[in-house]
Design goal:
- The protein is α+β, with helices and mostly antiparallel strands.
- It folds into three domains: about 70 residues, Molybdopterin biosynthesis moea protein, domain 2 (Alpha-Beta Complex), CATH 3.90.105; about 220 residues, Hypothetical protein af1432; about 45 residues.
- The chain is built from 13 helices and nine strands.
- α3 runs antiparallel to α4, α9 packs antiparallel against α10 and α10 packs across α11.
- The longest helix has 21 residues.
- It is globular and about 65 Å long.
């Protein structure tokens, strides 16, 4: 073991002792590998020295380690059971979409088997921090569908749905946009505003999705109605039927929340991802007349239940740790930065851009 200054710290070094913040929270646990992201956080918290291993049994050279660290920053390389099963789910769903295009039957058992494998790791899923390891904008529909499956399943748990509904709600999230396989890709990825005719064509994906699912016996009615109704609004201003809250299936109300969240926090060909905290605030405002307010309240409260000490980056690039969360303003906690408290309820021009740890 050796104690080194930040100037002596090298990419690829392995931290040998827990690193603490000025308030005593664990910034990095023992065993963390140093990448540019770690260096940035250490600098932000004014950490001057770090204990590192000196006898690492590493076959790579220092240059190899640095190259790996740089790759970790530019492309997520997180290896976890959830990410592994997520990647397999992408492959399965791609085959499902292709089978519908070719007019083949849906392989429901294959989908369910992989969904179950992925959902075994739902406890490690955090919708504010989870990111696919391999994301290409052309595969947006696949990633939106799978993240909606994870989030719909989680919302079902949070809102007290019976356990028998959890898997079906995951199916509802996964297949809610299946009708888009019948829509011209040029319309789905068009960077400019759609014409009236193009909007009408795009809106048909709800009816097309229902038609694709309606005769699949292994899916319950809620899954099918989610494909049809996930763009309906509780005040009756949605589409395709313009129905109000009394006629919208509960599954569709859940999927609508998940769909809006992930549609705004995933990159698209014509728009970059937004901060998940800003999206939560937008969803809160949309709850009035558009989304189910009870489901939204639970969703935002549960999604933002971070322990004090969570490390975040603000919209002005400063890094700090959450020290207090106001129950009435769950997306705007107090953040300690260099010993100064930033109250995001008061400083409305700032928001949390990213959760780092």
């Amino acid at each position: 073991m050796a104690t080194v200054t930040l100037l002596q710290l090298k990419l690829g070094d392995k931290i040998n002792e827990d690193v603490l913040t000025p308030l005593g929270s664990v910034l990095f646990h023992k065993g963390r590998i140093v990448t540019p992201k770690e260096v940035e956080i250490l600098q932000a918290f004014l950490v001057t020295v770090v204990d590192i291993e000196t006898n690492q049994a590493i076959s790579k050279t220092r240059e190899d380690a640095e190259a790996d660290a740089v790759q970790e920053v530019s492309t997520p390389t997180v290896t976890s059971p959830l990410h592994e099963e997520y990647d397999h789910m992408v492959k399965v769903l791609r085959q499902v979409f292709n089978s519908f295009v070719a007019g083949q039957a849906m392989p429901v058992m294959d989908i369910r088997k992989q969904l179950e494998k992925m959902l075994e790791h739902i406890k490690s899923y955090n919708l504010l921090t989870f990111a696919p390891r391999q994301f290409m904008e052309k595969d947006y529909l696949l990633h939106n569908s799978i993240t909606c499956a994870l989030t719909s399943y989680q919302i079902a748990q949070w809102t007290g749905f019976p356990q028998k509904d959890w898997m079906q709600l995951a199916f509802a999230g996964l297949l809610h946009d299946i009708g888009n396989v019948k829509i011209d890709k040029a319309i789905l990825t068009k960077p400019n505003p759609l014409s009236i005719e193009e909007k009408e064509e795009m809106m048909r994906h709800t009816v097309l999705g229902y038609q694709l699912l309606k005769n699949v016996p292994a899916l319950n009615e809620g899954v099918k109605m989610s494909a049809l109704q996930h763009h309906e609004k509780i005040d009756g201003t949605g589409y395709p039927l313009g129905i109000d809250a009394t006629k919208i299936h509960p599954y569709a109300k859940i999927v609508a929340i998940a769909d809006i969240f992930h549609a705004m926090t995933l990159n698209k060909a014509y728009r970059k991802a937004a901060s998940p905290y800003l999206v939560l605030e937008q969803i809160q405002s949309d709850a009035f007349g558009k989304l189910d307010p009870g489901y939204v309240r639970t969703f935002v409260e549960k999604a933002t239940q971070f322990h004090n000490g969570t490390i975040v980056k603000l919209s002005d690039e400063r890094i700090g740790e959450i020290v207090f969360s106001d129950h009435n303003h769950p997306t705007r906690p107090w953040v300690s930065i260099d010993g100064t408290i930033v109250n995001l309820i008061v400083d409305r021009h700032l928001h949390i851009r990213e959760v780092l740890r």
